[in-house]
C-alpha cells in the first residue's frame, strides 16, 4: 500500500472530486459515514460522546460525524473550538445542518472547556492534515485538557497537533489518542517511533478516494499489507527437490554465543531452505549437531571464534546459493579477516547481521566490497554505528535511504514497523509484529529467514519485505497464543507459517 504526502493527499481529494465526480460536501459525508461505521462497531450507544472540532475540514468531518451518531441514538455533546475567525465552506455547511438538531458549545476561552468524565468517549476533530504550524491559544488549552482527561480518545484522520509527514517540535502540544481512524492511506508519521503516543492504535478506513490516482502517483514510501505479503509467497511445485530450494551457508557463533547460530539455523530450516551448512567455531560443533541435526556443520579450525578456516578445507563460498553472516560471531581479528575474505570472494547477495555489521562499522573500507543487493539487518544502534546520529525520525529515514542507494544494498532497519530501504531509494514499512519480539535472539531468527529466502531465489527486496513480514506475523501468532511478555525467539521460529 502506498503512503502519500499531505500534498499528494490533497491532490487525491481534488482528483476524486473532479473525476468520480463527487461534490466536496458529499465526500465529507462519505468520510463521516465510514468513520461512524467504524465507531459503532466498537462503542455502543451507552457511552456518552464528547466531540471537539476545529474550523477546517477536519472539524467539518467532526460535525457530520456528530449528526450521524445522533441519528443513530448516541448522546453527543458538540464543542467547537473557536481558535480563528474563519471556517471552511464545508464546515459551515455541516454547522448549519447540525445547529438545527442540537445546541452547540463554543469554546473561545479556557472557562468554556467542559469537564470530561471517565466513561465518555472523546472524538478529536480539531485539526487534521491541514495543520501547518504549532497549536497555540485556546486550541492548545483544549488539547491539554483532553490529554489530562480519563476518557478514551478517538482522533479523526490524525491526532490534532501531529504533522502527518514532517517532524513536530519538542514543545508541540498534540492529542494523545487511544485510536486514530485515518482516511484511505496511512500517514508516514504513524510509523515513526517518536510519534507512538500521538497515534495509539490506528485503523485505515476506505472512503473510496480515486484508486486510479493512487496507482499513478509516485512515492518512495510503502506499507506492507497482509495481502501484498501473501502475493510474494511462492508455492512449491510438485516435482521440486531439495536442490530446487538452494544450499545456504550460515557463518555464526563464538564461544558463549553458539545459541545465536542455533536460532538462525533453525529459522533458516523453518523457512524452506533446501540444504543448510553452518560454519561455527569448534566449541559449537556438538551443540549444533545436536540442536539442529538437519543442518550440516563445518567446525572452524579456531576453538572459540570464526576464522573462516576449516579442517575439511577453506570455505568454497561460491558454491553456496546464499550466505548469512553475523549472529553471535563477535569481533575478533580472525573474524574480521574472515569477513574480508568472504566479501572479496562472494558475488551473490549476502545477509549481514549483528557483529558482522559492527565489523563493517569499524572497518569502513569493507563497505565497498559488499555485493550489490545484499541485505543488512541493523537495529537502530547498529545502524547509527554504520552511519551517523540523526536529529529526528525523518532525518533517520533520509540517512537510511541515502545509505541503501549509495551502496546499492537493502537495509532492514529493525524495530516496530521495521523500515526496509531498497537500492532504488524506496522504503517499505512492515505492518506485522509486536513488542513481544523485543527479546534476545529474534534478530538471529530474522537472519535465518532472510538467508533461506535468498537461497530459494527470491530477489533481495522481495526476500526482505516477505521475510520481515513473516517474522512479525509469527510473533503475532505467539502473542495471541501465549501472550507477548514470555515470548522467546524459539517460539517465534516455531510459529513460522508459510501458507
Ligand atoms: N482524503 C481525505 O483524507 C479527506 C479529508 N477530509 C478531512 O479534511 C482534513 C483536512 O482539512 P483542512 O485542510 O481544512 O485542514 P484542518 O481541518 O486540519 O484545518 C486546518 C485549518 O486550520 C488552519 N491551521 C492550521 N494549523 C493551525 C494552527 N496550528 N492553529 C490555528 N489554525 C491552524 C489552517 O490554515 C486551516 O485553515 C483531513 O484531515 C480530513 O479530516 C475529509 O473531509 C474528506 C476526505
Ligand atoms: N516493539 C516491537 N515491535 C515489533 N517488532 C519488534 C519490536 N521490538 C523488536 N522487534 C523485532 O525484533 C527483532 C529484534 O532484533 P535484534 O534487535 O537484532 O535482536 P537480537 O539481536 O537479540 O536478535 C527485530 O526483527 C525487530 O524488528
Ligand atoms: K483530528
Describe, in plain words, how this protein is organized in 3D.
InterPro entries: Carbohydrate_kinase_pred_CS (IPR017953), CARKD (IPR000631), Nnr (IPR030677), Ribokinase-like (IPR029056), YjeF_N_dom (IPR004443), YjeF_N_dom_sf (IPR036652). Pfam families: Carb_kinase, YjeF_N. In the N-terminal section; belongs to the NnrE/AIBP family. Homotetramer. Residues 225-499 form the YjeF C-terminal domain. The structure is a single chain. With 499 residues, the protein is α/β, with parallel strands linked by helices. The chain has 2 domains: 6-219, Rossmann fold, CATH 3.40.50; 229-494, UDP-N-acetylmuramoyl-L-alanine:D-glutamate ligase. Helices cover 38% and strands 14% of the residues. The protein has helices at residues 6-19, 24-42, 57-71, 89-99, 137-148, 211-216, 226-232, 258-269, 285-291, 333-345, 354-362, 380-386, 393-407, 442-455, 460-482, 489-494, and strands at 49-53, 76-81, 105-107, 121-125, 152-156, 179-183, 201-205, 221-223, 247-251, 275-280, 296-299, 322-325, 350-352, 375-376, 410-413, 419-421, 427-429. Strand 12 (322-325), helix 10 (333-345) and strand 13 form a beta-alpha-beta unit. The protein is elongated, with a radius of gyration of 26 Å. The mean pLDDT is 97. Bound molecules: ligand NAX, adenosine-5'-diphosphate and potassium ion. Adenosine-5'-diphosphate is lined by residues 354, 379, 414-416, 418, 433-435, 437-438, 440-444, 446, 471.
